[in-house]
Fold this protein.
Amino acid sequence: MSAFGEAAGRGMSRTSAQHHAQGLVGRLINGRQKYLVAAACVAVCTVMLLPLVASVLASLKSTEEAAAAPPTYIPRGLSLDSYERLWNYQAGLPVYFSNSLGAAGLTILFCLALTIPAGYGLAKFRIPGKEALFVVLLLGLIVPYQALLTPLFFLFVQLKLHNSLVGLAIVHTAIQLPFSIYVMRNAFEAVPRELEEAAIMDGCNSFQVLVHICLPAVVPAIITVSLFAFITSWNELLAALVIMNKDSSFTLPLILAAARQQTSIGGTDWGMLQAGITISIIPCMAFYLLLQKYYMAGLLSGAVK
Amino acid sequence: MHSKTSSYVGLLYVAPALAFVLTFTVYPLVQMVWMSLHNWSLIAAKKFIGFGNFVKAWNDPQFWTSLEFTLKYTILITPVLMVLGYLIALLTAENRPLRQFTRSVVFAPVVIGLGASSLLWYWLFSYDFGLINRALMDLGVIAKPVVWFGADADIALGAVIVSIVWKVVGFGTILFVAAIHAIPGEIGEAAMVDGASYWQRVRRITLPLTAKTILLVTLVSVIGSLLAFDQFYIMTAGQPRNLTATSVFLIYLNSFPYLKLGYGAALSLILAGIILVCTCLQMLLSRRSHA
């Protein structure tokens, strides 16, 4: 557009009317492009949102309508039947929901408890063999946790941590740890040295420096680490499948998978499944929308290695 | 605080994380190597058999079928993810309200669970209760419902790919947008003054200057696909005849339902080796593109 305008401007022999017309044509082309981009955006949004909207709508169908084939696009009336059945499914939704919440909460706790001091230590101290140490800490990036589940399962049986939320949270922490350490170390490195030095002059020890000077400065990193820990733990299926084999210790992804497995025997309760999907998606979506800024920053700081 | 003695104080801060990694990553890794050299089930006593499990894998048709299927899935899905992710990034890179909104929407499925999204698509693709068959019939594309997860492993693979592209395409998009934003504005403007068309600018400027990010997203997608489990466990359950059982699925089957723990460990090591090779390859390539 600017190249076009410049060329028009150089045409000395052109009348102002021609000039004006060309400007108008240019604007029309520009306008058409704008609509094309807008149309493409709307199309992309529609494709991405349709499955989610369809699932939420299906979760609000009555029991009979949810079991009808072919399915209706939009529920004829709104009903909470599916949610009621989900609430009472096997050990009951509150059990699974609180298991998921417990595992995610513990994962956040473990991640923070380990990576706040580790990030501080790595960023602010000269440690002999620091490079090698960092490689060991990031080992999880190279060894997929999927490959370690069998020996972990044995270890947990010995430690009586199978079927326990603590055990599951340990695996989820192991998955998230390399990324979290990386984010924390970078955050602590960004805290200006002058601040710490001033505090040391005032007689603070290193622990007091960590708590009073550095921690307030790395709050965004703490939010990032917590958010990623939550999303990983809340959604993780394979480790839960291996470690949790008692109905009352199941998490939401497990109960969803179990409900699907029923199809080989009898009919699936599609309405209840949709309700389960909706329930398990809501917290992730809420946190993501609320804390999008941190999520993006965390993703990018993890990507730029 | 940066005196000679402080180095040990620093180590003290790192110690808990180090202890955790040693206990829950390094120790299981060593244990897994040990297990892979044994015939080990929960019922019978374990017996040392050297590389017997690896020989067994070599001669196991299911091992090769799974590996082939996993590679096929990876090779089919990676280009789709890369091209679509990049196109959406180009479309939404500018910071205008509608485009930023679109970016958020495209990224949203990334944060939801693979289990939940797989189940959602399992329903959408279901034979008589699914909206996809209903919509395709209403549109006149198909005459009768398609059995997506039935006897034909290729149709099932196609359906899984559609669902996973929906789920993860936004991951690449976000990293691509960030990389595009990092390109200095003057470069594009100079090319525009020289009369370069939009696609010329994309080819000559945007693509080369985001090459490192493209490499990174490719690696993450490839590793993610090689480790695929949830989507097949939920949507196909490995059926028909274990033809859609991926490598991780096979490890899971052998280690847990079948209780062939030594064999499962050997399969895990082989997969970890493949992932390690991919990671090293990426490091090598990205170092070269850096120079």
